[in-house]
Amino acid sequence: MSDSEGAAPKERHPEQAKELARKLSSDVFDMVRLQGKVSPGGPATLSSREGERKYSVLHTWSISHLSDQELRRGFDRLREELPKNGWRITRIGHANSTARQLEMEAVHKKDNYSLSAELLVSSSGENTDASASKKGRIVFFVGSPTYRSPKGVDPDDY
To answer: Please, which residues have CB within 8 angstroms of residue 3's CB and are 6 or more apart in sequence?
Structure first.
C-alpha cells in the first residue's frame, strides 16, 4: 500500500494509522449490513524494507456463517454504498483464478486508504442455508498508504 503519486510519505503515528483503518473497516461493515460471524483481529503495522521509519497498515477481516444469497446481497450493498461514503470504486470483476470469485477494489478519496473485497461463495449458488455455509464469506482488506512514523517512534512497536 503506497502513495499512487510516488510522493514522500506523510508523517503519521502508527496508532493513528491503525485507528483510521479500524474506523474505515467499521464503516465498511456498516455498509454491507450483514449479521454473520466476523473474524477476530485488528489492523497490523507492516514496516517497509526501505527503512526510514516507513510503514503501512493492513486490516484483514471477513464475514461468514451466512447463506450465499445473503453474502451476495451484502456485496451488492457494498457496491452501492461505497461511492456514497467517500470511496471511489476502481475495479469490479472476477479474479484471475480457478474459482473466479467476484472482487471489488476501491480507494477512500479523503484518506487514500484502499479496500479490496472478495466474495467467496459456491459458484452454483445452491447454498441457501446459513448454517451450512462454512466456506462462504466476504473477505476484506483495508490498507493504508505508506506513512513515515514520527522521529523516535519505531513502527514495529505498534
So the answer is: 9, 112, 145, 146
51: Cβ–Cβ under 8 A, 6 or more apart, which residues? Answer: none
Chain-centroid distance, C-alpha 130: 23
What is the rounded CA–CA span in Å between residue 94 and residue 87? Answer: 20
Please, are residues 88 and 107 in contact by the beta-carbon 8 Å criterion? yes
Q: Which domains does the chain have, with CATH numbers?
A: 10-146 (3.30.2030)
C-alpha cell at 27: 464503516
Q: Whole-model pTM?
A: 0.86
Closest CA to 32 of 127, 110, 140, 109: 140
- Asked whether the predicted pLDDT for residue 2 surpasses 60, the reply is no
What is the distance between the alpha carbons of residues 144 and 73, in angstroms, rounded to a whole number?
Answer: 27
C-alpha cell at 121: 461463495
pLDDT grade for 8, boundaries at 50, 70 and 90: confident
